[in-house]
Amino acid sequence: xxxxxxxxxxxxxxxxxxxxxxxxxxxxxxxxxxxxxxxxxxxxxxxxxxxxxxxxxxxxxxxxxxxxxxxxxxxxxxxxxxxxxxxxxxxxxxxxxxxxxxxxxxxxxxxxxxxxxxxxxxxxxxxxxxxxxxxxxxxxxxxxxxxxxxxxxxxxxxxxxxxxxxxxxxxxxxxxxxxxxxxxxxxxxxxxxxxxxxxxxxxxxx
Length: 206
Hints:
Keywords: Membrane, Transmembrane, Transmembrane helix. The chain crosses the membrane at residues 6-25, 37-57, 63-86, 93-114, 120-140, 147-163, 169-189. This protein is an all-alpha fold. It has two domains: 1-70, no CATH class; 89-206, no CATH class. The protein is 68% helix and 0% strand. It is globular and about 50 Å long.
């Protein structure tokens, strides 16, 4: 299993890179791509990232991307994959806000600001594991089933040592996820202000 981990990691990163490109192409297109086209693009782009292309590159493109960003969390990976492939419903704003709050608290403490080290909780800490299960339960009660199964898969991947890390945090949170959540919240605030300003203009006296 350990000998296959680098291959699995490259496959995962190749798929992720391909889906990012498909997402960018989708954003620039006035029409939604059908699933068949997405699958075809995924197969073509995924192979381009997975196999060495020669030229001056000794490793596959996915290996260079992985070397720069590391292994993405399972939560980040599944949110991206499901959003692109199945056009899943948007992630609830409450969940994005929760990610931002956790990131703001977690990263400074994990970097040594303060006495607590929340990163250490990810090493088989029962209270932390229960807290993660409670988050999944809240997602279920909020009728966001995608959040439930994404967290469930992240826990299963951690238990199976899918990535090199043995810390549960690395399967749940990463900087790209935190940056995405912050950008999404800013976009929501900007949209609300824009809609409010437009509403005020439309209903202005005279």
